[in-house]
Amino acid sequence: MNTIKVGLLGLGVVGGGTWKVLSRNAEEIARRAGRRIEVVAVSTLDPDRARELVGDTALITRDGMDIVRNPEIDIVVELIGGDTVARQFIMEAIEQGKHVVTANKALLAKHGNEIFEAARRKGVMVAFEAAVAGGIPIIKAIREGLTANRIEWIAGIINGTTNFILSEMRDRGLPFEQVLAEAQRLGYAEADPTFDIEGVDAAHKLTLLASLAFGIPVQFDKAHIEGISGLESEDIAHAERLGYRIKLLGITRRTENGIELRVHPTLVPKGHLIANVEGAMNAVLVKGDAVGPTLYYGQGAGELPTASAVVADLVDVTRLETADPLHRVPHLAFQPDAVKDIPILPASEIQSSYYLRMRVADRPGVLADVARILADAGISIGSMFQDPSGPNQASIIFLLHQAREGAVDQAIERISAQPFVQSKVTRLRVENLQ
Q1: If 0-12 CB within 10 Å is exposed, 13-18 middle and 19+ buried, where does residue 322 land?
Q2: Radius of gyration over alpha carbons of the chain, in Å?
Q3: Residue 308's closest CA among 58, 16, 47, 21?
Q4: Cα 416 to Cα 147, 382, 413, 422, 427, distances in angstroms
Q5: What is the secondary structure of 212-241 as a DSSP string?
Q6: Residues of the chain with CATH 3.40.50.720
Q7: Which of 318, 352, 391, 393 has the most crowded CB, counting CB atoms within 10 A?
Q8: Which one of 205, 247, 270, 340 is the catalytic residue?
């Protein structure tokens, strides 16, 4: 059969890794795909570096449209990132009847509905395994391996930068700012780390996982997002004392009233597998009604792990390139006419357990007053302890049983207004992932 011809948009870390994997494992990949897969053109803003890598084996251009509109190219691989130029390239590639492979989670989280609909109309595929959790084949697992299941919930560590920072804060007792600086020095964090540390990157990925799990449109704008920049070392230490570890989790759950879609720091029991995922590693826990909980672990970023996912998509597209479009695996796992616009719950309607910490005047009656406010809001206390934190001061830590977040927020507002409260009330969610 004819060779599948590929055009690469971008030859950075992942693009370079994709070239290396395709070159190094060409024979093995052809045996799996049934046809040779060959990169015939590359667009890059650094042609000299590209020539060092690819030699004379591929056309090199600075203009991505040269690739997108090249009639010889079967699959366009978009690895430039962002949601402006990349969107133009992908939409034009689809219009030209080309299949697309992308690692661009931000683009798909914002414009996935438009992109997938355009691809459906043109009968082409958009594959995006590399957009979530790097080399972990989590999209294929949900879209195909767990297709017999009614997915109940997903919880994942899907940003390696924040997991590295939280691991270092816990192990070394260092403040957030110091560990962030080290993460930047080591290359785990960007010069501008906002997307990572504020949870946006994880929310992009979680949005795609929720659509795959529940058959809903991509709805990034409805995700509840909290990052780790405000997390204090003492809360990590208190969590350890209580038998928990703090992880930045992306959680999406099906409930009777709608879908939870949230990213935030979370206390997880120390004995849970996901609590022991350290450094820059990723892990995703998926609960299906038939299979039960399944855990997927591995490197969530990096040149070759992410390239592994890109090439896996290329093999899938090659295998199905001649298949009837109506009988391919749907982009979002469910048939397009079966995707349902189930509401995304606002944060106030989320049900969770909670950790509260506050600094108060150390005098009689304070605990009783706080307990009364929580009871008035219908919130039950699971456990509590207090530590002296200065002359005539104490830090009180509560673990609350499951409650509606809106009720917890109202109780915190009342507690904060009390004259004996001498600090901001810190609230973190607790998930046992049962």
Answers
A1: exposed
A2: 24
A3: 21
A4: 47, 20, 5, 8, 12
A5: HHHT----GGG-EE--STT--HHHHHHHHH
A6: 4-135+303-338
A7: 318
A8: 205
Q: Quick one: three-class SS letters along 366-388? A: HHHHHHHHHHHCCCCEEEEEEEE
**Across the 434 residues of the chain, what is the mean pLDDT of every consecutive 10-residue run?**
94 95 96 96 94 92 96 97 96 98 98 98 97 96 97 98 95 93 90 95 98 98 97 94 97 97 98 95 98 96 94 96 89 95 96 97 92 96 86 92 97 97 96 91
Q: CB neighbours (10 Å) of residue 242? A: 17
287 is catalytic: no
Residue type, 413: E
Where exactly does CATH 3.30.70.260 map onto the chain?
Answer: 352-430
Rounded to an integer, what distance in angstroms lies between the CA atom of residue 238 and that of residue 383? 13
Euclidean distance between CA atoms 412 and 364, whole angstroms: 20
Q: Write the single-letter amino acid at 172.
A: R
- Biggest alpha carbon distance in the chain? 83
* CATH code for the structural domain at 352-430: 3.30.70.260
The runs of H, that is alpha helices, within 123-175 are: 138-140, 160-172
* pLDDT score of 391: 80
Determine the CATH number of domain 4-135+303-338.
3.40.50.720
Distance CA 246, CA 240 (A): 8
**Contact between residue 205 and residue 155 where contact means Cβ atoms under 8 Å apart:** no
Do residues 141 and 294 lie in contact, with contact meaning Cβ atoms separated by under 8 Å? yes
Angle at 309 (CA atoms; ends 208, 334), nearest 5 degrees: 35
152 by DSSP, 3-state: which? Answer: strand
Residues with Cβ within 8 Å of 260's Cβ and at least 6 positions away in sequence, in order, are: 153, 251, 252, 253, 344, 345, 350
CA distances from 287 to 154, 211, 295, 374 (A): 6, 15, 9, 32
Which amino acid, residue 7?
Answer: G
pTM value > 0.85 = yes
Kindly state the helix (H) or strand (E) to which residue 190 belongs, with its residue range: none
**CATH 3.30.360.10 occupies which residues in the chain?**
142-299
Backbone angles phi, psi at 336, to 5 degrees: -55, -35
